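Supplementary Note 2. Why include the ligand at all?

Several targets in our set were suspected to adopt different conformations when bound, so apo predictions alone were not considered sufficient. For every target with a known small-molecule partner we therefore ran a joint prediction. The input for thiamine diphosphate is given below.
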Amino acid sequence: MYEKIPIERPATPLLDSINLPADLRTLDVTQLPALADQLRHYLLFSVGQTGGHFGAGLGVVELTVALHYCLNTPQDRLIWDVGHQTYPHKILTGRREAMLSIRTPAGPAPFPSLDESPYDAFGTGHSSTSISAALGYALANKLDNRPSRTAVVIGDGAMTAGMAFEALNHVAACQADILIILNDNAMSISENVGGLANYFARNISAGDAEATPPEGMVSVPGSIFRDLGFDYSGPVDGHDLPALVSTLRSLADKKGPRILHILTKKGKGYAPAEAAPVDSHALTKIEKQGQNKQISCANLFGRWLAARAASEPALVAITPAMKEGSDLTAFAAAYPERFHDVAIAEQHAVTLAAGLAAGGAKPVVAIYSTFLQRAYDQLIHDVAIQDLNVLFAVDRASLLEDGPTHSGVFDLSFTRAVPNLVVMAPADAVDLEAMLDFGFDHAGPALVRYPRGSIEASVATAAPIELGRSRVVRQGAKVAVLAFGALVETARQVAEAEKYTLIDMRFIKPLDEAAVSAAAADHDLIVTIEENAVAGGAGSAVSELMAAKGITCPVLHLGVPDAFITQDEPGKMQAAAGLSANAIAAAISRRLDQLN
Ligand SMILES: Cc1ncc(C[n+]2csc(CCOP(=O)(O)OP(=O)(O)O)c2C)c(N)n1
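The joint prediction is reproduced in token form.
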């Protein structure tokens, strides 16, 4: 058991001799526990250096060793659900040293990535896709008569999502040759919730898989999967390497859909993580810890929610498995009956909110930008068409270290196309709270999007929020910068230096038409700035409005280009997208030169 994250690189001679899984397969099974121990120690060291996900990785160290030992990867396909637990997998598959630069453009991606390694059979990041992808592989193998085997590792948290069930249903229909390893640690990021989580817990206390059900007992472990048409084995101790190896060996060559249920401990082998698995889901780099600056947008939201709930008995908050990340902890503790962690079920979260609103409650959906992508139809079909009073608090609407899977830079494009929906982006902490209030009180659906971390307060004016009204931050000349959300502060630096006009647009929908036409009348160039895809984003809204109203003025759209921005520190990702103050200033002056 490790008590501390090593700051010095530990000695890991056996691990160092494993450059690829083929090396691992030359070991004797009795050497595997020592290898697992060194892998765990090195994982702790490398994550300490880089930050990143580690609680889940610690829990699958033995499983990772056993899988690469028993399967013939990469010819056999191994697909990890979510992929946040793949640091040990990356270490064993040729990326041990590279792990020291994970989450930088030169280093490995924080999740499996098809083009990074042949051992990463499928790119992930969002949960519950693994069984579908594996079924695709299995069916493609069959078409091509390839002997390759297909295995999946999916957590009990990821198993709660609709997609996982959709795939199980279809796998059973196809009777495809797939081995699904259900990694049950009773944890999502928070404690896993719901009927499935209870079912697993009940079964585990009922004991061994092979036992006949005692009189009166409703089910034996795995009966739900057996009934669906799977060959179920388990539960097996997922930290017992010899047991894992012998079970995997016996299951790997079987045909048809198989489920192996293993029990593991999140954070295994690192005492602080075992004691506090929620906090150890991910780690901040050692050097960065303690540099705690301003209050984050998530914290502001959490504070707003708890305060507003005190005077709003109909307020109900919903999270799809992101209670801590969205900072609903205080609210959940104070108002447990009005708090719903629906597990990893974004679609359900949004339609549940629609139902609550139809029933007279006042739901607030706290959701990350990229996870809202999953619930687009529910947003349109269940909330917006029925014009229901749902407030969406959309967090992580920004470029993120976790890379393209988690960078929330599409929400403005896909939400602003939806009728009835009001879309806002605050430039500072004051506006964030004011917009949450405004959206909550608005009759109809409303959405407030904000980035990870904090937003600058230097442009705060506390001007009241009025529907579809922008505010002029500074009056200048020549160029009117129309900035949206968190980038207002960056735009301010440019506008002040160059004496441009700066407008904090506040609303993406409805857009401030009067402000746009005034800006066009008084300036040579309109520049829109947003941390969102240029394609279909807030700037597009400005151009569409101008086209519709016959307003003419040269326009420059600055935002995330039509490309996925590689993982890096967020500030560097912004720079890579051309959204640093320098890049913005340069782009504007280039355009002015072209116009002259
Ligand atoms: C669609 C989606 N929603 C939410 C998340 C955030 N998320 C990442 S890991 C995780 C918990 C996964 O739990 P489980 O599958 O049991 O894996 P464990 O971490 O317990 O090993 C969640 C909710 C996500 N990656 N994708």
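Residues 207-218 have pLDDT under 50 and may be disordered. The radius of gyration is 26 Å. Comparable summaries for the other entries are listed in the accompanying table.
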